Amino acid sequence: MANFKHCISSSWKWASSYIRFSKAAIFISGLIFSKSFIENAFKAFLIFYIIDSLENLSIGVAIVYTVAGDGIQQFLVILIHHLAIDRHGDFRVIILTIPCLIFGLLILWLSSLLRSQQTRNQMLYIALPVILVGLAGKEVSLEGFLRQHFVEETIVVDETKSERQQEEDYNDIVDGRASLWSTGAGFLGQFICWTFTSSLRWQQRIMVSFIEVAAAYALFICGKRFFLRIPPTRRTAVSRLKEAGGLVKLIPLWLLFIPYCLVEVAGFSIFILQSDRLDTEINPRISLHSFNQVPVSSLYVFEQFISFLVSMSTKYLIRKLWSSEEAMQRGARYWRMGVGMAVGFGSLSSAWLVERRRSDLIKKNPNNDEVIRMTILWLAPQFGLLGIANGLVSKGLTDFFYDRVPESKRYFVVLFNQSLTVIGSFLSGLAVLLGPDWLGDTIDKRQLDKYLLMLAILNVAVLPLYIFLSLMFDWNIPDEVDGRDIEIEEVDGSDVEILIEEVDGRDVEIL
């Protein structure tokens, strides 16, 4: 009985801390819903749309277009993040970028109604960059703008903990409140898209996406009077770059995550292509066609769900098991990244084995229109492992960065993390262009298994180097005051600031 009361008490304490109603959140959640909807309906399967839209296009070039588009989007994320924080604010960025997405989808929809293939291609080249601007604006501003509405001075944290841990607890509560809204809206968007649009043709899918995004934008405008608007800092790009100079120390460690970023890029390009000619039927005895199919979008939703579960559970366990030991939490986050890189190797290994079997079956069935005797569920392990790796590495990079830098430099988390994706995307495209012997004109002729094996070996090879550098060197970045470094150390359970000043060529500590 006592355990039951304790469970009820803990549940009530959690609910009272994390569940908050917000009028502004209702209107913002509509855009988050549309973001997940369009990612599932269009962005995640952009490579198939490019192949279907551009006739006589080789698979290799389609991969280059897809990964280059993702790299451009992430580069735009970095630029728009600066505009949102320093120049215009999140609200204005949302107001200006979402119409780009709506306009781009409208162009694609109208182009699908035309008969001229040349005109459709020209409109595609116009629409895609505009869509990327809109998607980048959503990625940058939506969740941060939602978070602003849950910041309260009345949030109670454990005052017996160190100042840094109190700050982390406070941020966890604020992030948790916003996450309940954003996660709920995001998964609802994915579920509805997966349920109702997976069987639609591209023309219908784009039309539905256009209507949905336009409706969400109109709803957002209606909630204008409920929104909080934090004024921008008015910092210039030059001053930000000077401030970022102290973070150069982190670059060697961050470069080790590039091989993992190649895994992420393979997830929305090569993994999707591997579903070509696979049997999507569940059971021949099921008469209803819509209930007897496993579209590749199901595997994408499965990956995203696994990623969310792993990310949240890992973060919770680290904070729960070492609630009063900050150093142990940091160490656990080091190992979290390493385990994620190892799981990424497992995902690529699974994809390599699947591709070998798939290639053998295709050679026995050269007819391009014939479904081979291999179910699409063979792809489930690699998507599941990719979801685990994503939850450990991609979702953990932010905490990993925050552990290394003072609060004054957390602004640069977007610059560091998105730069990895940009580099990974363009390296993937470069590998496709430089490896024509591996990547033939069609998915059936290419030696895709060798490319996947190379990525797997690269990921497992960099893991020992990551462990060695993590353990042998101090990657923490001290804060600065008047040109002098500040290091924060925990002494007798409390944080003590130590100024590091250079005297006669030596670093001198000043308490």
In words, what does this structure look like?
Its main location: membrane. It is found in: Membrane. One of its GO terms (cellular component) is membrane. It is a multi-pass membrane protein. One of its GO terms (molecular function) is transmembrane transporter activity. There is one protein chain. This protein has 511 residues and is mostly helical. The protein has 3 domains: 22-235, Growth Hormone, Chain: A (Up-down Bundle), CATH 1.20.1250.20; 244-477, Up-down Bundle (Growth Hormone, Chain: A), CATH 1.20.1250.20; 478-511, no CATH class. Helices cover 68% and strands 5% of the residues. The protein is built from 18 helices and 4 strands. It has helices spanning 2-18, 23-41, 46-53, 59-88, 90-112, 117-148, 163-196, 202-222, 237-244, 251-255, 258-267, 270-273, 296-321, 326-364, 380-394, 397-404, 413-434, 448-472, and strands spanning 479-481, 484-491, 494-503, 506-510. The chain has a 4-stranded antiparallel sheet with strand order 1-2-3-4, with no helix packed on it. Helix 2 (23-41) packs across helix 7 and helix 4 runs parallel beside helix 6 (117-148). The longest helix is centred in the C-terminal third of the chain and has 39 residues, at 326-364. The chain is globular, with a radius of gyration of 24 Å. 36% of the residues are buried.
